[in-house]
Amino acid sequence: MFSPLAGNAPRSARRSRTRGAACGAALALILTLGACAGEPEAKAPEPARVDVMVMQPRDLPRDMDFSGRTSAYRVAEIRPQVNGILQRRFFTEGVDVAKGQTLYQIDPSVYQATYNRAVANLASARNLARRYEDLVADKVVSRQQRDDAVAAWHQAEAEVQAAHIDLQRTHLSSPITGRIGRSLTTEGALVSADQAVALTTVTQLDPIFVDIQQSSDELLRLRRHLTDKNLTAGSGAKIPVELTLEDGKPYEIKGKLSFSEVNVDPGTGMTTLRAIFPNPEHLLLPGMYVRAKVRASVAHSAFLVPQNAILRDLHADPFVYVVSRDGSAKEVHVTLDGSSGNSWIVTQGLHAGDRVITNGLEAVRPGAKVAVEEVSGGAAANRVASAEAH
Q1: Which of 214, 213, 208 is nearest to 286 (CA)?
Q2: Multidrug resistance protein MdtA-like C-terminal permuted SH3 domain: from which residue to which, for each copy (predicted)?
Q3: What confidence tens digit (pLDDT) does each residue in 41-87 have?
Q4: Would you say residue 124 has pLDDT above 90?
Q5: Are residues 87 and 142 in the same domain?
Q6: Phi first, then psi: what are they for 260, rounded to 5°?
């Protein structure tokens, strides 16, 4: 028997399930909103803590550092100019000798005999020429005979002079004043005028040269500083140079640039500057390695920035971070022009009163806020640079 309620039962069940699903979705939404409302809001990042240096313009010396080697002012190799047996040595090795001091004696007997014979020949030729001069007037001898006799007289004079020079060369003397080295030949040895080995060497140590190797671009920069109208290059062409020895200690006496090579080595691109230094105590010896600091010029109204504050961008251009008035970090590109101690000399990009970030740079980002913890004045650092300049 058909009942109308039987057909409606499934429809009622479906409505019940639909209302249940709707209630579940609403409950889930309420729970989700409740959970979101309970989460705390994200905090803004704290400003990076940094140290800054306040920039103050100063007149700063431009120093250029180079490596170099010392070389003797004069070197004289003592070599024999005549052949013979070495009879005697008149010096002690390693002492100072004076110009003209006799160092060696070669056996002079053969050269003394040659000189005596030349003197005798000169007397004979001179007497004959004078006799012919009297006889030519009486036409006893011809003018040609008289002229030949006069020529023989002059030739004999030249032979005497040559013999005397060879006799003097048996005494080997020092051509310069300086420190003499070890003797490479002993008494009794046969020496010759064309031998390859020198008997000894005399070296002048005071003053002494320092040869400085530098690249061609460094030389251009140095010369540009010396000719710039806004720079001071010292007194005339006397550019001061300071030395640091191999043990790291400074050489107390300052020198000056002497000259620059006119050629650049095409293989290395290097050229040589030569400085001259007083060396009264003979502390500097030829061949020593030294570091030379050339006081090229003075940069006017420049800034001294610690080396760790200088950064490089992708193009290797230098820049610093400066704290703006609103407390944010600003990237400022600068121009470097030499160094002074552990700081760079900045000639462009900064202004008086700029606060340059020196520490805490790893957390700094352009435009981000920073918290300044310590402020140091550039005047103190510049006073140190000024003291180094003097």
Answers
A1: 208
A2: 302-362
A3: 556 678 889 999 999 998 887 777 788 899 999 999 999 999 999 99
A4: yes
A5: no
A6: -125, 145
